[in-house]
C-alpha cells in the first residue's frame, strides 16, 4: 500500500467513489442523529459504554480466563492465537479436521485483518462471503471501503455487471435479465447463496461481543446471512479479538442500545443472534472460539492508545469525518479505515513503515469523531500521541508524512477552506504547539488560526453545498432516504 | 496452543503494569445513570408503531379471537403448508384449514418447502420494535424461523417490555437467542433499503391482549 497521502490523492480523483461515499455518509449521519436524539440518556449510555470497556481492558486477563471457562463449560472449545499466522493455522486445521473444503462466512473484520480467506485458499479451502456487500467485494476481487457498508464505493450498475460476470464462477449464476434495481440484485444474491447455506457444513464468524460471565457470543446483522451461518452448519468457528469482551450478560443492555443507533442509525438492527457453547438439537454441534491477539496487547500497553480497544466498530466516526468522506476507505491501507483506522492500524502494526507512519496525519483534528463515538474514544488525543511517536523516530519521516497530508488537504482552495472550517470545531483538540518531540515541528510552522465555529454548525450550514461533484455517477440514486420510513 | 494461551495472557499482564495490583474490576466505576426505558408511550402501542416502521404487518387481538385472526392471516398470505413448533398450543390453529406441520425434526429441505412458520416468542421490546425468540415454549429451534420466507409470530401483551434493559433479565443467556426487529433487510446497494435477503421477507405479528 502507498502511504496515506498518495493513496488519498488517487482516491480523491475518483469522482464516482466520492459521489457514492458522500451520499452514504450524509444519509447515515442523518439517520444516526435522529436515532440518537430519541434517547434522552444517550450521554449516560455513552459514559457507561466507555466505563464497561475500561473495566474490561484494565482487567482483561481476568475476563479472558473467565470467558474461556464459561465457553468451555457450555460445550465450546477455546483456542488462543498470538498473531495472524497462528490464528489462520488454527482455523485451517479445524476446517481440515471436518474433511470439508467449503466454508461460509459472516462478515468479520477480524478475519479480514488476518487475511483468513487467503490462508484458507492456500490450503485448498474456499471461503464464501455471505453478506451482500462482502459478496460484491469478493466477486469483484476488490477491497472493502467502509466498515458498515463495504461496497459503498460501487453503484448499482457496477454491481449488476459484477453479478453478471462473476456469479457463475462462484456458484449459481445471475439471472439472464438481471436489472440494476436493488431489489433484483438482492434477490439474485438470495438465490446465489441459498443452496450454499443449506449445504455447507462449516461456518466462520466473528463476534460483536463475547460475554465473559455467560460465555455467550453476540452477532448483530441485517440480512439473515448471519443467522444462516450461525445456525445451519454443523461446525462453527468464531474468530474474536481479545478486546471484544464485555464482563456480564447485563452489560449488553448498554451496547445493544449504543451500537445499532450509532452504526446504521436504526433503533435496532433486524437480527441479533446470541449463542453460548452448543445447544443439543439446535444449531452447530461443534463450536470453537479463536481468541486473537495480533498486536492488541501492544495497543493495550500504551496507556494513551489503549482506549482504541474500546471500539465497537460502529463506523460513526467514518461517517462524520471530512477526510474520510473525500478519500474513502481504501486510502487507509488497512481493513480499519477512517478515524479509528488512523489510530488503530499504526498501533496494531507499529509505525515503522510509511503507510502506518502517515496515518496519524490523516486528520485535521477537528474532533467530530470523538463527538459521535459511542464509547467516547478521544481519537484526536490518540492521533497527537501517535504523531509524537512518529516524530521521535530517527529520520525525517514525520515531516514527510505530515507535509504529504497537508499538501493534499491544502491542494485546492476549496479543500483548504474545508479543512480550516472543519478544524475550527473543537479548537481544544488542536494544540497550538504540539507536546513532546512534535513541538519541534509546530514551533517552526504555524497552525492556521481558525475562527471558533463548531463543526456541527458549519456542517449544517455548508454541508448541502459541498463541492458539487463533477461527473459524479449518472446512476447515482436520488436523494432517497436509505432507511426505514 | 496452550503455549499461546500463556503467551497471550503474559502479554496482557505485561501491558497492564499501570493497573495497581490490588485493583479489582469492581474498582473501575461504571456509572449506570441510563434509564431502564424512555417513556416513549404505552408499551403495546409503541411496539405496534415500531414494528410497522420496519414494514412488519401487525394486528392486535384478544385470546378469544386469536385463532380466527391467525386463520385470516394465513389465508391472506396464501400459505397452505406452514411449520409450527411441536409445543405450539393447539388452540392457535383451531380455525385454520391450512396444513400445519409440527416440527419434530424437519430437514432443511422440508423447511425450505414450507410456505411459512408460526411461533410464539420469549419477550418483546417496545421501544426498539424487537421480538426475542429463545427456542423455548412454542418457539422451536432457530432454523425453523429462519428458512421459511414468512414468519407469523404470536406475542402476548405480558411479554412486552418497554426498554432493552428490561428485556435482558428476562432472558437466559444459556439459550440460543434470536432478536428480530422487522423482516430481513439490506442497505448495501447505494443505501437503498430492500426488505428481505436471506431471512423471512415477511414478518407478521399478532399481539394478544
Ligand atoms: S472509534 Fe468509536 S465511532 Fe469509530 S467505529 Fe469505533 S466505536 Fe464507532
Automatic annotation (TrEMBL), chain B:
<dbReference type="InterPro" id="IPR024185">
    <property type="entry name" value="FTHF_cligase-like_sf"/>
</dbReference>
<dbReference type="InterPro" id="IPR003741">
    <property type="entry name" value="LUD_dom"/>
</dbReference>
<feature type="domain" description="LUD">
    <location>
        <begin position="114"/>
        <end position="208"/>
    </location>
</feature>
<dbReference type="Pfam" id="PF02589">
    <property type="entry name" value="LUD_dom"/>
</dbReference>
<dbReference type="InterPro" id="IPR037171">
    <property type="entry name" value="NagB/RpiA_transferase-like"/>
</dbReference>
<protein>
    <submittedName>
        <fullName>L-lactate dehydrogenase complex protein LldG</fullName>
    </submittedName>
</protein>
Amino acid at each position: 500500500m502507498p502511504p496515506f497521502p498518495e493513496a488519498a490523492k488517487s482516491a480523491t480523483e475518483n469522482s464516482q467513489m466520492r459521489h457514492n461515499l458522500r451520499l452514504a455518509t450524509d444519509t447515515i449521519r442523518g439517520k444516526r442523529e435522529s436515532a440518537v436524539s430519541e434517547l434522552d440518556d444517550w450521554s449516560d449510555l455513552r459514559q457507561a459504554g466507555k466505563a464497561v470497556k475500561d473495566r474490561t481492558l484494565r482487567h482483561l486477563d481476568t475476563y479472558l480466563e473467565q470467558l474461556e471457562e464459561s465457553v468451555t463449560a457450555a460445550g465450546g472449545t477455546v483456542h488462543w492465537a498470538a498473531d495472524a499466522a497462528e490464528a489462520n493455522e488454527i482455523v485451517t486445521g479445524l476446517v481440515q479436521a471436518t474433511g470439508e473444503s467449503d466454508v461460509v462466512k459472516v462478515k468479520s473484520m477480524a478475519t479480514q485483518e488476518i487475511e483468513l480467506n487467503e490462508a484458507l485458499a492456500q490450503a485448498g479451502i474456499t471461503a464464501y462471503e455471505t453478506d451482500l456487500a462482502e459478496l460484491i467485494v469478493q466477486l469483484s476481487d476488490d477491497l472493502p471501503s467502509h466498515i458498515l457498508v463495504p461496497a459503498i464505493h460501487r453503484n448499482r450498475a457496477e454491481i449488476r455487471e459484477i453479478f453478471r460476470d462473476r456469479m457463475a464462477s462462484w456458484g449459481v449464476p445471475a439471472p439472464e435479465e438481471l436489472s440494476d434495481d436493488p431489489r433484483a440484485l438482492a434477490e439474485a444474491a438470495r438465490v446465489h447463496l441459498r443452496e450454499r447455506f443449506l449445504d455447507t457444513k462449516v461456518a466462520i464468524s466473528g463476534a460483536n461481543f463475547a460475554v465473559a460471565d455467560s460465555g455467550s457470543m453476540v452477532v448483530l446483522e441485517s440480512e439473515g446471512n448471519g443467522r444462516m451461518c450461525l445456525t445451519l452448519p454443523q461446525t462453527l468457528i468464531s474468530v474474536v479479538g481479545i478486546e471484544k469482551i464485555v464482563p456480564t450478560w447485563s452489560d449488553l443492555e448498554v451496547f445493544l442500545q449504543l451500537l445499532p443507533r450509532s452504526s446504521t442509525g436504526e433503533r435496532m438492527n433486524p437480527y441479533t443472534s446470541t449463542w453460548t457453547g452448543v445447544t443439543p438439537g439446535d444449531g452447530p454441534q461443534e463450536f470453537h472460539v479463536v481468541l486473537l491477539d495480533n498486536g492488541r496487547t501492544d495497543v493495550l500497553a500504551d496507556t494513551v492508545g489503549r482506549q482504541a480497544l474500546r471500539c465497537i466498530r460502529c463506523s460513526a466516526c467514518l461517517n462524520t469525518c471530512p477526510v474520510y468522506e473525500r478519500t474513502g476507505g481504501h486510502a487507509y491501507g488497512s481493513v480499519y479505515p477512517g478515524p479509528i483506522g488512523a489510530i488503530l492500524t499504526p498501533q496494531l502494526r507499529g509505525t515503522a513503515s510509511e503507510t502506518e507512519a502517515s496515518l496519524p496525519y490523516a486528520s485535521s483534528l477537528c474532533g467530530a469523531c470523538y463527538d459521535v463515538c459511542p464509547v467516547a474514544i478521544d481519537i484526536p488525543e490518540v492521533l497527537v500521541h501517535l504523531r509524537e511517536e512518529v516524530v521521535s523516530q530517527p529520520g525525517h519521516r514525520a515531516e514527510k508524512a505530515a507535509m504529504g497530508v497537508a499538501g493534499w488537504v491544502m491542494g485546492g482552495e476549496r479543500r483548504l477552506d474545508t479543512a480550516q472550517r472543519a478544524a475550527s470545531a473543537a479548537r481544544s483538540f488542536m494544540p497550538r504547539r504540539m507536546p513532546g518531540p512534535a513541538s519541534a515541528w509546530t514551533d517552526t510552522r504555524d497552525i492556521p488560526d481558525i475562527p471558533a465555529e463548531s463543526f456541527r454548525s458549519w456542517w449544517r450550514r455548508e454541508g448541502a453545498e459541498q463541492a458539487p461533484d463533477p461527473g459524479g455517477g449518472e446512476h447515482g440514486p436520488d436523494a432517497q432516504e436509505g432507511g426505514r420510513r | 496452543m496452550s503455549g499461546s494461551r500463556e503467551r497471550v495472557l503474559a502479554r496482557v499482564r505485561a501491558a497492564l503494569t499501570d493497573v495497581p495490583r490490588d485493583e479489582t474490576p469492581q474498582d473501575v466505576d461504571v456509572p449506570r445513570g441510563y434509564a431502564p426505558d424512555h417513556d416513549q408511550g404505552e408499551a403495546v402501542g409503541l411496539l405496534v408503531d415500531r414494528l410497522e416502521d420496519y414494514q412488519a404487518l401487525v394486528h392486535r387481538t384478544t385470546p378469544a379471537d386469536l385463532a380466527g385472526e391467525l386463520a385470516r392471516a394465513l389465508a391472506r398470505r396464501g400459505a397452505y403448508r406452514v411449520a409450527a413448533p411441536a409445543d405450539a398450543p393447539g388452540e392457535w390453529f383451531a380455525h385454520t384449514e391450512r396444513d400445519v406441520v409440527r416440527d419434530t425434526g424437519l430437514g432443511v429441505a422440508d423447511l425450505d418447502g414450507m410456505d411459512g412458520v408460526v411461533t410464539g416468542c420469549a419477550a418483546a421490546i417496545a421501544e426498539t420494535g424487537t421480538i426475542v425468540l429463545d427456542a423455548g415454549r412454542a418457539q422451536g429451534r432457530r432454523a425453523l424461523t429462519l428458512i421459511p420466507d414468512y414468519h407469523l409470530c404470536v406475542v402476548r401483551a405480558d411479554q412486552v417490555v418497554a426498554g432493552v434493559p428490561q428485556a435482558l433479565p428476562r432472558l437466559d443467556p444459556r439459550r440460543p437467542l434470536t432478536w428480530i426487529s422487522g423482516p430481513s433487510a439490506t442497505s448495501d446497494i447505494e443505501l437503498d433499503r430492500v426488505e428481505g435477503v436471506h431471512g423471512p421477507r415477511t414478518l407478521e405479528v399478532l399481539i394478544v391482549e
